[in-house]
Known about the structure:
The protein has a single domain, classed as Jelly Rolls. 3% of the residues lie in helices and 42% in strands. The chain contains 1 helix and 12 strands. The strands form 3 sheets. Strands 1, 3, 4, 7, 8, 9, 10 and 11 form an 8-stranded antiparallel β-sheet that branches. A two-stranded antiparallel sheet has the order 2-5. Strands 6-12 form a two-stranded antiparallel ribbon. The longest helix is centred in the last third of the chain and has 4 residues, at 129-132. It is globular, with a radius of gyration of 14 Å. It starts with 14 loop residues before the first strand and ends in a 5-residue tail after the last helix. Manganese (II) ion binds at residues 56, 58, 62, 91, 97, 99.
Amino acid sequence: MSTPENPNSIFPKGDRASADYFTGTAWVRLLLPNDEAVHTQIGDVVFEPGARNNWHTHPGGQILIATHGVGYYQERGKPIQVLHKGDVVRILPDVVHWHGASPDSEFTHIAINSNTQNGIVTWLDRVTDEEYLSLGK
Ligand code: MN
């Protein structure tokens, strides 16, 4: 269910995301802990406008489901993709990428980490403002 502080999600807002791996303010709620039967971890992430995670990879791949607002997704060497509610992104293992809100809109997605027996995430460098604001340039 949504809550007064998170009216645009079907889930209550989670914990503040680590400043070590996120720029700006984001909130992460673990929906399904990883386990050895299904090798899958699921979380709900709320990004305030301008917030994004660092460049990173998922050794087992990841699927994002956009549920609210306008977001960004980018793979290294490719243009930023704009995400809207209902968009689904399939991220192959070890592809370097980041995701987050657009500058002027909050963004919420469900993140499904698959094949977690191979690892969940490897964090890399921050997304610079120049990279973040590269859309259309
Ligand atoms: Mn990711």
